[in-house]
Design a protein that fits this description.
Aldehyde Oxidoreductase, domain 4, 3 domains, globular, alpha+beta
Length: about 750
């Protein structure tokens, strides 16, 4: 047994709390037009902006498709997070290569094998990653046919591709491997690809069974939590009581002598134990935690005052969008005094304000990772959403060249958004690097996951809209206050262990994602027709705990705010809410999803409903550039039980060309259920020592009896059209429709989320 020690009182400081407000360059918020050398919103460098999808960031065809004597391999830098994208991407590759699914390997998210696509986030997987595979495979297919034509002395147009072979009219044939012999795929992709006929697709548009499901439902090894390599040691970490605490002392020697303990690591404020058995590691962690004495200096506001606190903290104020009456769009201007909507010509001005609380990711399985330092290579198995950014962060944390770090994605149990996946991977890497040869498994505890994961930010929004006498929108003023939604790895200091070790690393300053993607202001720009729009961002740069990416980012509350305003304006002008929305839209695809949802629901103006029942309707196009979603739903409010039950939900979606209808349905249903939970129940309790909601008893979520009784998903397929992201399109419309339905059922339009605690304080 060995012990790593430092002085009893750590030299590390919470650098991310120190100093005043952090200024962010206005240049960051310019137009999203891209050029070579820039990074996209997912952290990958753009090399050729004219190429489709993520070929922009990795234009070499052999980064995506490899063919050798062992067969065909297709690679993707995107990861499977339980959304079914691995299956969908496989389907795209199979149709474009004219190969059966079982005839090729499909490899995802391995820094040694796959292209760097940054993060799997923001509903970009099919839109960018799927598009890249679609075009790369089509171009490689054409190259194979040309190569086979030369070898068979047959015109390319007379060759037929069937089940992995290329056939000539006279019966001669070549396998793909034979055709590719001598063919160099290490070449740049082209801007256009050979066309394909959607009517001939064998897999695209079909509900192919997901390849990730079998092990999950049969008790197999499905997740990183299930990995058990030979010689593996178990590790547990001890965290400070909150983000501002520093270590005074801990009884490291006594814990080092406990049964099964192999090593205790003490470096500044960083404490961890490594043991032969998992329960031995847990017992040692508890003993070390009980012996630790901390100095705490930070205080925290409670939930009742958090939105007032947001307005007092250091922040950056700027105009994220300014669309004038001349139709021009200006971004990134410093905030001056915003002219009210009433200053524009309008017969009526309405105002709404909305708030949301902090929320947890609430992953079913606490974060976990494995790492081994062997033969000069540190290999990390992780459920991170971005293996390449994680590799760079770990390399910087440990002082290693990136080439000596390999990150391999393995699914995590209940992983999405910026939860603890990257941090636990850094834990495993740090410990493995100090103990060469042995695989080290780090599993967080439930209270550590809840207390230390980046939270989904609390936000406040304020919207003022002017309309003319006919109800047409004339001016729009949207303001919002929020902490960062994007604290992913841009330097090693974004990894939790980097703050705690004696040689601590400060995280890089927070910076929002520019429009049209947006961050806290995601979906704050209305898709509705309005000539005069301004969105003001009050971006809080300093908080006593981390906030980062939660599914849909600011779209959740911004869509609630916008759709509540549309309901209010419809009522003010005596119009049906659905008809009013349709009248303010020019986009025919937006109108189509609204009409489909309304028809399928049986929407009628002023329906006769029993007491305590209400219906609601909402619409959004995610980020105004991804999938379209309209939702109608009905609720029953039970005052005696203090409960809101969602009876039925009807939704219509347009995500372009549908690859896997069953997978898309799963995503929409899951988004509706999750957004219902956020909107009705979920909030983190913040107390004097920080996060207090550290278990399922203290953090309320939707339970199975409260899941909507019926969800009908209507999909508008667009064969031959680009793939549009679907994973996050339901969060905003679900919340907005719920707010509307609860208002009708109770006669109280509540815009403070979650709703249930405000219905019955």
């Amino acid at each position: 047994m060995t012990t790593d020690r430092d002085e009893p009182v750590s030299r590390s400081r919470r650098a991310f709390l120190a100093g005043g407000g952090l200024m962010v360059s206005f240049a960051l918020f310019g137009s999203l037009r891209v050029s070579a050398g820039q990074e996209n919103t997912l952290g990958a460098t753009i090399l050729n902006p004219k190429l489709p999808g993520d070929l922009k960031i990795e234009p070499m065809l052999d980064a995506w498709i490899r063919i050798d004597a062992s067969g065909v391999t297709v690679c993707s830098g995107k990861v499977e997070l339980g959304t079914g994208v691995r299956t969908a991407l496989w389907q795209v590759a199979a149709d474009q290569l004219a190969l059966p699914l079982e005839r090729f390997r499909f490899v995802t998210a391995d820094t040694a094998l796959t292209p760097d696509e940054g993060y799997t986030a923001g509903s970009h997987t099919m839109a960018d990653g799927g598009t890249a595979i679609f075009h790369a495979a089509a171009q490689v297919r054409a190259m194979l046919v040309d190569a086979a034509a030369r070898k068979l002395a047959v015109p390319p147009e007379r060759l037929v591709l069937e089940n992995g072979v290329i056939k000539a009219p006279d019966g001669r044939q070549l396998t793909y491997e034979d055709a590719a012999a001598g063919l160099d795929l290490h070449r740049m992709a082209t801007e256009t690809s050979p066309p394909s006929d959607p009517s001939a697709y064998r897999y695209i548009g079909k509900s192919v069974p997901r390849v990730d499901i079998l092990a999950k439902v049969t008790g197999g090894a499905a997740y990183v939590q299930d990995m058990r390599p030979d010689g593996m040691l178990h590790a547990r970490v001890v965290r400070p009581p909150n983000h501002g605490a520093t270590l005074v002392s801990a009884d490291v020697d006594a814990v080092s002598r406990m049964p099964g303990v192999v090593r205790v690591v003490h470096d500044g404020d960083y404490l961890a134990v490594v043991a032969r058995g998992e329960w031995q590691a847990v017992l040692a962690m508890r003993a070390l935690q009980a012996s630790a004495r901390w100095r705490q200096t930070e205080t925290f506001p409670d939930n009742a005052t958090i939105h007032d606190v947001l307005k007092t903290l250091p922040r950056l104020d700027y105009v994220t969008t300014r669309q004038g009456v001349d139709g021009e769009v200006h971004q990134a201007a410093p905030v001056a005094n915003a002219a009210p909507a009433a200053a524009s010509t309008g017969a009526r001005v309405e105002r709404v304000e909305a708030t949301k609380q902090y929320v947890l990711h609430g992953s079913i399985g606490p974060s976990c990772a494995l790492a081994v330092w062997r033969d000069g290579i540190l290999t990390v198995w992780t459920h991170s959403q971005g293996v390449f950014p994680l590799r760079a962060g770990i390399a910087g944390l440990l002082g290693l060249p990136k080439e000596q770090v390999r990150c391999v994605h393995v699914e995590g149990s209940g992983c999405y958004g910026h939860n603890g996946a990257d941090d636990v991977a850094a834990d495993a890497a740090l410990l493995a690097h100090r103990m060469p040869g042995a695989p080290i498994r780090v599993q967080w505890m439930r209270d550590q996951e809840a207390g230390w994961e980046p939270l989904g930010p609390a936000m406040e929004t304020s919207l003022e809209v002017a309309t003319d006498a006919d109800g047409a929108l004339t001016a729009w003023r949207h303001a919002l206050w929020s902490t960062p939604h994007n604290e992913r790895i841009t330097n090693p200091g974004r990894l939790l262990p980097a703050w705690l070790v004696s040689q601590s690393i400060a995280p890089s300053p927070p910076s929002p994602i520019p429009q049209p993607e947006g961050d806290a202001d995601r979906n704050a720009v209305p898709l509705y027709r309005v000539p005069d729009v301004r969105v003001d961002m009050h971006f809080v740069t300093q908080m006593p705990f981390r906030t980062s990416a939660m599914r849909s980012l600011g779209a959740h509350i911004n869509v609630v705010t916008i759709e509540a305003m549309m309901d209010r304006l419809a009522a003010a002008h005596g119009k049906d809410p659905v008809a009013y929305r349709l009248a303010q839209l020019d986009d025919p695809r937006a109108k189509a999803v609204i009409q489909r949802a309304a028809e399928a629901f049986g929407w009628t103006a002023n329906p006769a409903l029993p007491p305590n029942r209400g219906v609601g309707f909402a619409f959004a196009r995610y980020k105004n550039l991804m999938g379209y979603c309209a939702i109608a739903l009905e609720v029953e409010v039970d005052p005696d039980r203090r409960a809101v039950r969602v009876d039925r939900v009807v939704t219509a979606v347009d995500c372009g060309q549908i690859v896997n209808p069953d997978g898309l349905t799963n995503q929409i249903e899951g988004g509706i259920v999750q957004s219902s939970s956020w909107t009705l129940y979920e909030q983190v309790r913040i107390g004097a020592v920080g996060v207090e909601s550290v278990d399922w008893q203290s953090y309320p979520i939707l339970r199975f009896p409260q899941v909507p009784a019926r969800i009908d998903v209507h999909m508008i397929d667009q064969p031959g059209m680009p793939f549009l992201g679907a994973a996050e399109i339901a969060q905003g419309p679900t919340a907005a429709a719920l707010v509307s339905a609860v208002a009708q059922a109770t006669g109280r339009r509540l815009l403070r989320l979650p709703l249930v605690p405000h219905l019955w304080p």
